[in-house]
């Protein structure tokens, strides 16, 4: 009996030592937890887009040949309406204007001279006609031959009066036409001279465009000789900005005009801008060439003005689809599929069946099974080899079929996570 007792004691000591050593050298697993919260939950779609101006103007070179740019407003500067943006060499236009102004003065002088000549001749012809009439009155009762001669002189005076006045009137009209033509040339020269300075039709940001320079494209600069009508500078109005983005055809029916949008810039992730869905395209298009993914174009109006908003900046749009009030929600990674049942694990590792509803990119609604305030595990505590959350995450079953009923997600295999991973849609 003593022999067996000794053997039992030795086995107990060995087993106890093994357990003690194992406990010392085996690291404790710290299971991350979260609290099931009760409150409002926002259902949203997260999409990426590009900031752009709702209103923009392209400033082009005037339709005049042989232009050379002599000055440009600095790129990136902000100009007001009416401020100069582009100036061209106006040497030829100034010379043309001066020459045409000289021609106009000569034509005006000729017109003045023609008017004076008309006035003088009109008075002289009127005087001659009156003399002929008096002479005819005085001699019409004299001898027939004398009376006839006086009548002929009167007729000749009347004909001379009409013919010469018509000729003088024609000379005046001709002079007036020359003045009109000269004035039109002056006006045209003045217009061309005015076009040598291109002013901003709207307030905006100066953005240089690329133009063809011989064998390559490059941004416009001083000294360039653009062709007539070529676009040189884009002028977006920074007081009215928007974001151009897209949504997949799966989510397009969730988006409508007027919905609230929270916009964040990649350059300023800590700042949020308020926006509204302004427009959704009526037809889908390919996301990229040769892509099988169809998307709808969305325009989001940014409802506040901010100098940090610049065209071309990358932005993230959180389109608020719905707001659920007074619901229980848990992180997506806290929900699992076990034996065709959706469950969560409480802090004491007990399994709790739940019925889930709608979800966003981080949380999922729990319609039944939790009241809010419970501590739940973010990883499966029943798995022997625990890793960090997401180390072995696969495509979540709850996110595979986004059109499935929210309260009955598809069943998954034993031990697979159902809530992990993040998506942009609800």
Structural features, described:
It is rod-shaped, with a radius of gyration of 46 Å. The protein has four helices and 24 strands. It folds into three domains: 40-51 and 240-400, Efflux pump adaptor protein, beta barrel domain (Elongation Factor Tu (Ef-tu), domain 3), CATH 2.40.30; 55-89 and 196-236, OB fold (Dihydrolipoamide Acetyltransferase, E2P) (Beta Barrel), CATH 2.40.50; 92-194. It is of the alpha+beta class and 426 residues long. The protein starts with a helix and ends in a 26-residue tail after the last helix. Helix 2 runs antiparallel to helix 3. The strands form seven sheets. Strands 2-13-17-15-14-18 form a six-stranded antiparallel beta barrel. Strand 22 (355-359) and strand 23 (363-368) form a beta hairpin.
């Amino acid at each position: 009996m003593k022999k067996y007792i000794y053997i039992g004691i030795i086995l107990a000591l060995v087993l106890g030592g093994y357990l003690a050593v194992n406990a010392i050298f085996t690291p404790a697993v710290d299971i991350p937890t979260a609290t099931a919260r009760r409150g409002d939950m926002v259902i949203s779609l997260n999409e990426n887009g590009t900031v752009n101006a709702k209103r923009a103007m392209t400033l082009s070179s005037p339709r005049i040949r042989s232009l050379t740019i002599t000055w440009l407003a600095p790129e990136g500067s902000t100009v007001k309406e009416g401020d100069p943006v582009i100036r061209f060499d106006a040497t030829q236009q100034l010379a043309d204007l001066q020459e045409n102004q000289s021609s106009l003065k000569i034509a005006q002088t000729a017109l003045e001279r023609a008017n004076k000549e008309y006035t003088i001749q009109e008075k002289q012809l009127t005087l001659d006609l009156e003399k002929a009439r008096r002479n005819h009155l005085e001699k019409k009762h004299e001898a027939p031959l004398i009376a006839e001669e006086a009548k002929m002189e009167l007729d000749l005076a009347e004909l001379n009066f009409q013919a010469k006045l018509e000729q003088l009137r024609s000379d005046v009209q001709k002079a007036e036409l020359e003045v009109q033509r000269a004035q039109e040339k002056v006006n045209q020269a003045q217009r061309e001279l005015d076009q040598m300075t291109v002013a901003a039709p709207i307030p905006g940001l100066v953005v240089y465009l690329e133009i063809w320079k011989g064998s390559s494209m490059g941004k416009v600069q001083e000294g360039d000789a653009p062709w007539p009508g070529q676009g040189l500078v884009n002028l977006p109005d920074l007081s009215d900005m928007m974001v151009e983005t897209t949504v997949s055809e799966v989510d397009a029916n969730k988006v409508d005009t007027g919905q609230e949008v929270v916009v964040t810039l990649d350059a300023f992730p800590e700042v949020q801008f308020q926006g509204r869905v302004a427009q959704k395209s009526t037809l889908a298009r390919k996301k990229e060439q040769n892509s099988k993914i169809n998307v709808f174009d969305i325009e989001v109006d940014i409802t506040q003005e901010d100098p940090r908003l610049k065209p071309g900046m990358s932005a993230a749009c959180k389109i608020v689809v719905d707001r659920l009030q007074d619901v229980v929600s848990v992180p997506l990674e806290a929900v699992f599929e076990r034996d065709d049942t959706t469950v969560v694990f409480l802090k004491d590792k007990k399994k709790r069946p739940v019925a889930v509803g709608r979800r966003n990119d981080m949380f999922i609604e729990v319609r039944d099974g939790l009241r809010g305030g419970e501590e739940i595990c973010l990883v499966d505590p029943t798995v022997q080899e625990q890793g960090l959350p997401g180390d072995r995450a696969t495509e979540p079953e709850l996110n595979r079929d986004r059109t499935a009923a929210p309260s009955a997600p598809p069943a998954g295999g034993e031990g697979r996570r159902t809530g992990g991973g993040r998506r942009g849609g609800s």
